[in-house]
């Protein structure tokens, strides 16, 4: 179906169902219960899941297929965000032109950076991309925000002001917030079912549909002759050159495609929250997408999405646990012991969530080099192995003569 | 006029004159072996032919066109394919995919952004790759990862990949180095068969005299960066200069 083989189609369908039902799946705990803080089914976080999923899917096309590790992809995310907000400022709050422009601008930007950076490979390529991203960050943070020429609005961040032109904006008919032909991105339908409350947000579903389209496109790229060439680049550039193929256009195309994915993700970040800051371009943001891809499984289809969800979940849920919450969990212990336990766990929660994430990342890289996807495969193999064993054991009980 | 004409080629690495005044003419449809003791400059010469190195002096003409200053992929497109000393294949890809890539590249190696067509629907290319695998007796290994093949099979695959491009000149750099005797003999038979059945010129660099004398119909002996003699195999065998270069015996 859709030009995919059976296995890929089923992967796509499973992802589509999970994304569409995310408001249910991510909200397993009743809203009044103590575990409700582990619910991730609120619009803000769900939007981040799918948007950073897009970012990681795009990054994986470059890193997973060609093996070129870019440390500067946040630059494209930032460029996309700024482009989208500029469309809001100039044209009005409809998200469509903003998203389209963010893809186009980040594509051009990626072409420039890729053209220069791809002259080198390995660590030199990584450093070049990192340098470009940090330069972009510096430009956005200070250089391009002076009174004469204010493109990025510096540390305040680019946002829409009342005196902006917004040529096509009609405040009488349209919401004063990002919208898609009148449907506000913040519009949320709340469904109360017993003790549970489920939220269906327009912005989330827009991002989700776009993510599914991106995921589908990524599968097609993975299975295309172009994708095969990219894997050949990763596997053996020497042989590629001596087979009459110039690897440069292939890597550049992969770089531009992944840059456009990043720009799209940046545009969507602005579409759900019309504010673009320079910190989106910082090297930590570039590093985050590398972590997502490796944690989930570089070079796999579903891995980057899992990695993005995993990291964003930790960032938003783990960081919310504070000492007060811990005390309420361990209140059944005697006083001294309760304090001791809370003292021991304290560094790993709240602001310390980075520490937990770092430890988990190390564990995954050491024990599951293929990321979460490899973990899943091992689990399936283990279960199958047990089943096979029990069936052979059954055979052994009445052996053939 | 041979298909490959090397004239007065010299190459210096710092204080070492690796090649000097190399003149070589490889005739079309011959099997031309280049032999010589270690450090004679065989590999340097080969690298000069495929664009990995640019000689300091002299010229290299393939079929009337200079190859100097061209990138390896451009030289390959002119019709020169190279087999490496250690097989260079796409280890992470399956055997079939390995064979498909040179089949794609046969269209002049031109870049194509065919990101939306499926690999498995490229019927003409798939057919060609399958056909080549059958010719190499590797059809049963088509789904294997190339890295998992035995040394001999890797060599077979690499030669098959080169042949699927239908090159006019096949360069082999010690194709049997580090191989077991049985694999060596298989490779010899394969190369013999190729040179007999196809309209192809083979230039081979080799240490193993067994391989050289079973294949070559012309031999150039290289010593200290310069050709010592060029002759037919039966004359090389008894040539005192060659014995001297190899064994250090005085003639």
UniProtKB/TrEMBL annotation, chain A:
InterPro entries: ABC_transp_permease, LivM-like. The keyword Membrane applies. It comes from the Bacteria. It is a multi-pass membrane protein. The chain crosses the membrane at residues 12-29, 49-71, 91-116, 123-144, 202-222, 249-269, 289-311, 353-372. Keywords: Cell membrane, Membrane, Transmembrane, Transmembrane helix. Its main location: membrane. It is found in: Cell membrane. Pfam families: BPD_transp_2. This is Branched-chain amino acid ABC transporter permease. It comes from Leisingera daeponensis.
From TrEMBL, chain B:
This is ABC transporter ATP-binding protein. The keyword Transport applies. Signal peptide: none annotated. PANTHER family: CONSERVED COMPONENT OF ABC TRANSPORTER FOR NATURAL AMINO ACIDS-RELATED. PROSITE patterns: ABC_TRANSPORTER_2 (PS50893). Pfam families: ABC_tran (PF00005), BCA_ABC_TP_C (PF12399). Residues 4-249 form the ABC transporter domain. InterPro entries: AAA+_ATPase, ABC_AA/LPS_Transport, ABC_transporter-like_ATP-bd, BCA_ABC_TP_C, P-loop_NTPase. Keywords: ATP-binding, Nucleotide-binding, Transport. One of its GO terms (molecular function) is ATP binding.
């Amino acid at each position: 179906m859709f030009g995919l083989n059976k296995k890929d189609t089923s992967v796509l369908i499973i992802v589509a169902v999970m994304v569409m039902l995310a408001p249910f799946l991510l909200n397993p705990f009743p809203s009044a219960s103590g575990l409700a803080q582990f619910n991730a089914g609120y619009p803000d976080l769900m939007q981040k899941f799918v948007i950073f999923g897009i970012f990681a899917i795009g990054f994986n096309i470059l890193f997973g297929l060609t093996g070129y590790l870019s440390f500067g992809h946040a630059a494209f995310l930032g460029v996309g965000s700024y482009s989208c907000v500029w469309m809001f400022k100039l044209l009005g709050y409809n998200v469509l032109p903003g998203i389209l422009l963010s893809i186009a601008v980040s594509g051009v930007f990626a072409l420039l950076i890729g053209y220069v950076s791809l002259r080198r490979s390995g660590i030199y390529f990584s450093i070049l991309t990192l340098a470009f991203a940090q330069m972009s960050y510096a430009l956005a943070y200070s250089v391009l925000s002076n009174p004469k020429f204010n493109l990025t609005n510096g540390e305040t961040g680019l946002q829409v002001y009342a005196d902006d032109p917004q040529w096509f904006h009609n405040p009488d008919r349209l919401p004063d917030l990002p919208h898609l032909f009148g449907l506000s991105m913040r519009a949320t339908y709340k469904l109360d079912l017993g003790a549970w409350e489920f939220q269906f947000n327009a912005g989330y579903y827009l991002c989700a549909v776009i993510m599914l389209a991106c995921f589908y496109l990524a599968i097609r790229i993975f299975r295309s002759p172009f994708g095969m060439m990219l894997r050949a680049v990763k596997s053996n550039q020497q042989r590629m050159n001596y087979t009459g193929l110039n690897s440069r256009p292939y890597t550049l195309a992969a770089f531009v495609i992944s840059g456009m994915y990043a720009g799209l993700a940046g545009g969507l970040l602005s579409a759900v929250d019309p504010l673009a800051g320079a910190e989106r371009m910082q090297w930590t943001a570039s590093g985050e997408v590398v972590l997502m891809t490796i944690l989930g499984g570089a070079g796999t289809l579903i891995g980057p999405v899992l990695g993005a969800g995993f990291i964003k979940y930790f960032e938003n849920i783990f960081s919310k646990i504070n000492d007060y919450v811990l005390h309420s969990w361990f209140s059944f212990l005697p006083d001294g012991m309760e304090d001791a336990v809370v003292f021991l766990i304290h560094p790993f929660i709240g602001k310390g969530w980075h520490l937990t994430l770092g430890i988990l990342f190390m564990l995954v890289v050491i024990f599951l080099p293929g990321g979460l996807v490899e973990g899943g495969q091992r689990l399936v193999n283990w279960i199958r192995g047990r089943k096979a064993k029990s069936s052979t054991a059954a055979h052994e009980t009445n052996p053939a003569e | 006029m041979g298909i490959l004409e090397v004239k007065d080629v010299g190459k210096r690495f710092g204080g070492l004159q690796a090649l000097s005044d190399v003149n070589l003419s490889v005739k079309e449809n011959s099997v031309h072996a280049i032999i010589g003791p270690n450090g004679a400059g065989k590999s340097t010469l080969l690298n000069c032919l495929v664009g990995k190195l640019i000689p300091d002096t002299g010229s290299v003409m393939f079929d009337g066109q200079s190859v100097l200053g061209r990138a390896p992929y451009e030289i390959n497109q002119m019709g020169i394919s190279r087999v490496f000393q250690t097989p260079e294949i796409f280890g992470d890809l399956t055997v079939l995919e390995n064979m498909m890539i040179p089949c794609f590249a046969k269209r002049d190696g031109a870049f194509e952004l065919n990101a939306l067509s499926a690999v498995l629907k490229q019927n003409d290319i798939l057919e060609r790759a399958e056909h080549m695998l059958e010719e190499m007796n590797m059809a049963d290994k088509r789904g294997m990862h190339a890295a998992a093949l035995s040394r001999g099979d890797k060599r077979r695959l690499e030669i098959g990949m080169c042949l699927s491009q239908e090159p006019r000149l096949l360069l082999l750099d010690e194709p049997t180095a580090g191989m077991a005797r049985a694999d060596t003999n298989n490779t010899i038979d394969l190369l013999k068969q190729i040179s007999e059945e196809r309209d192809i010129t083979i230039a081979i660099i080799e240490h193993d005299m067994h391989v050289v004398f079973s294949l070559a119909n012309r031999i150039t002996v290289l010593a200290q960066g310069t050709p010592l003699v060029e002759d037919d195999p039966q004359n090389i065998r008894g040539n005192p200069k060659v014995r001297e270069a190899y064994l250090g015996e005085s003639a």
